[in-house]
Design a protein that fits this description.
There is one protein chain. This protein has 225 residues and is an alpha/beta fold. It has helices spanning 19-23, 26-33, 56-72, 88-99, 127-135, 148-155, 176-189, 204-218, and strands at 6-10, 36-38, 81-86, 106-110, 164-170, 194-198. It has one domain (6-218): Alpha/Beta hydrolase fold, catalytic domain (Rossmann fold).
Length: 225
């Protein structure tokens, strides 16, 4: 019997692993496709191995897959493994997919924080102190291992391994400009992706609509009952 497909579904900055269950129809569509959904909680970590804190990227990419295999016997092949997320979760999903493209069939970012320049955009923003604990010196983010453009540049060196990429963002939200820039960077580097922009806010209505659209795009047929 073929292994069931697995979706890692990542939450945003002010949420936790239960947010997708509370605010979207993910259970309904997961049942429709016979899909296993893992929704880890990582606090406000940006899915990062912090210099003075927890190793959340290692947790996402190493510890959690090992736990799912050891406890549940769940070890799908890369062609049966997906990852997606909203806002900070979009950042985490793309980070995993672009740094380990051989592990995933598809990845999606919904309203993703696909540029960390926004963390320095507001002078004297008290959150900058928090983000410095997560990333270290914020002035060194550009061109570092935390920079999504660096992930794209590295991923472009092995295009045959890249998963299907789905990027969606609403035109009425603050992250719209950086998603446009990410889309342009993908085009310039020759990285194939689906980019969707439409009217929408940074909210669960938008993310619910697009997680369903993403899954119906990359999963060919619903599971047979």
């Amino acid at each position: 019997m073929r292994e069931r497909k697995l979706l890692y579904l990542l939450h945003g900055l002010s949420e936790n692993g239960g947010a997708w269950q509370r605010y979207t129809s993910i259970e309904t569509i997961a049942n429709e496709y016979g899909l296993v959904v893992a929704m880890p909680s990582v606090g406000r970590s940006f899915y990062t191995d912090q210099p003075n804190g927890q190793r959340y990227f290692t947790y996402l990419t190493e510890e959690l897959p090992a736990y799912l295999q050891d406890v549940f016997g769940l070890a799908p092949a890369p062609e049966d493994t997906l990852i997606a997320g909203a806002s900070m979760g979009g950042y985490g999903a793309l980070k995993a997919a672009l740094n380990y493209p051989e592990r995933f069939a598809a990845a999606a970012s919904f309203s993703g924080a696909v540029s960390l320049e926004i963390l320095r955009a507001i002078p004297n923003d008290p959150r900058q102190t928090e983000f410095a604990y997560i990333f270290g010196d914020l002035d060194q983010l550009s061109g570092s291992k935390h920079d999504p453009v660096v992930w794209l540049q590295e991923a472009a060196k092995r295009p045959a391994e890249l998963p299907t990429l789905y990027i969606a963002c609403g035109r009425q939200e603050d992250l719209y400009p950086v998603n446009q820039m990410f889309h342009t960077a993908c085009q310039q580097l020759g990285i194939t992706h689906e980019y969707v922009e439409e009217d929408g806010e940074h909210d669960w209505h938008f993310w619910d609509r697009h997680v369903k659209r993403f899954l119906r795009t990359v999963l060919s047929e619903p599971a047979q009952s």
